[in-house]
Amino acid sequence: MVATRSGEAIDGAAVDALSDERLDWRFKAVPVSAHGTTVAELRAARVPLSDFGTPLMTLDAGALDHNVGALARWTDAAGVALAPHGKTTMAPQLWRRQLDAGAWGITVANLPQIRVARAFGVRRVMLANALLDPAGLAWLGAELDEHPEFEFVSWVDSPRTVELMDDALRAARAQRPVDVCVELGGPHGRTGVRDDGDARALAAAVREAQTLRLAGLAGYEGALAHDASDAGRHAVDAYLRRMANLFGGLDYETDEPFVTAGGSAFFDQVVDVLGATGGQVVLRSGAYIVHDDGFYREISPFSRGTGDAPLRSAMHGWARVVSKPEPALALLDAGKRDLPFDEGLPEPQFVRGKGAGPVENARSTAMNDQHTFLVDSSVEIGDVVRLGLSHPCTAMDKWTLIPVVDDADAENPVVVDLIRTWF
């Protein structure tokens, strides 16, 4: 794959055009007072967050900048490339920050996400999945043929996958071969061929398919461990060693084959093991840009001593106390439709305007669709509680437009931008 020049990695004009979008009832984060204005006008007005209603989720401008810079510096020093998993945010404005900081490309998870990336002119896209939909493959073939600057790679994990892709691309009369990586899986993991011998046979099948081209080896170590315990890290290392051994034994069809792995939990191990292969290592960490106050706070390598500083959670929930039916039970107006809950419940941090003290001993105990249950006797009906959140991948998808504040720790933060998502 050929590197793109600075400024060409994404269509900046298409991203900038998002600032012209008119705000209205479609965006649940936007106050009625801002309806009819554009994103650019609201951004310039520097509206205080207190003008926004609840429930609400925000991003912190300083934390986003810190996180993008931290991983960019680290990957540069490590001599590896980064193709952030765009499915975490599905926000081209944030993708542009990552690409401008030196990212190799953007990773996506399915066909609709490829189309979003192409709508915003992302030049290099990795699909961390297999693409088998005939109509989708016909569209992809046409997209590659019509845009010679567009670089794309997907994964395969079975001969049947190769056969179906080849049939569909032939039927579509695609001219450019589609680059693919053999995907190596692990026991009880996700997708990916399980046996190394089968992986070598699969690579041979790719080479025989005229519409495909073998470009590298792919895998995902995060499916094999859910914590940074010794057992979890050992499982990750064992899998990565398999990848390293297999990478050197395949016959690729490109001048610069690459090996790709690495979520936001074990990228340090990926570099330690796969960096020794001599091939180009491409990380796919995605959650790092937003980070969190839960799962990734505990498991990120930057929280375990890697890097020059820990990552910072950029996302927060804001919810109002709407009921106190019992002395020590408060009900907040944000629930599962608003905030993530799959990797831990929201963490109450402070009451806006009252400092950190009032909720320092509070805890969330449950959520339903529109409410969070808070055990705490100190908050009052009408108080707005800031919540730390866990798992950005299931937070961003609940909001089509997300306010960015200047400083989420301020007594009354100011909204300095709005991030559009496309889930």
Structural class: alpha/beta
CATH class membership of the largest domain: Alpha Beta
- The fraction of residues assigned to DSSP E strands is 15-25%
Number of spatially distinct domains: 2
Low-confidence stretches: 1-7
Q: What report would you give on this structure?
A:
The chain has helices at residues 12-16, 39-45, 61-78, 92-100, 111-119, 134-146, 159-171, 196-208, 230-247, 267-274, 295-299, and strands spanning 56-60, 81-82, 106-108, 124-127, 151-156, 178-183, 212-218, 258-261, 280-283, 315-326, 329-332, 347-351, 363-367, 372-375, 384-388, 401-405, 415-420. With 423 residues, the protein is of the alpha/beta class. The protein has two domains: 12-60 and 311-420, D-serine dehydratase-like domain (Lyase, Ornithine Decarboxylase, Chain A, domain 1, Beta Barrel), CATH 2.40.37; 62-291, Alanine racemase (TIM Barrel), CATH 3.20.20. Strands 1, 10, 11, 12, 13, 14, 15, 16 and 17 form a nine-stranded mixed beta sheet that branches. Helix 6 packs across helix 7 and helix 9 (230-247) packs parallel to helix 10 (267-274). The longest helix is centred in the first third of the chain and has 18 residues, at 61-78. It is globular, with a radius of gyration of 23 Å. It starts with 11 loop residues before the first helix and ends with a strand.
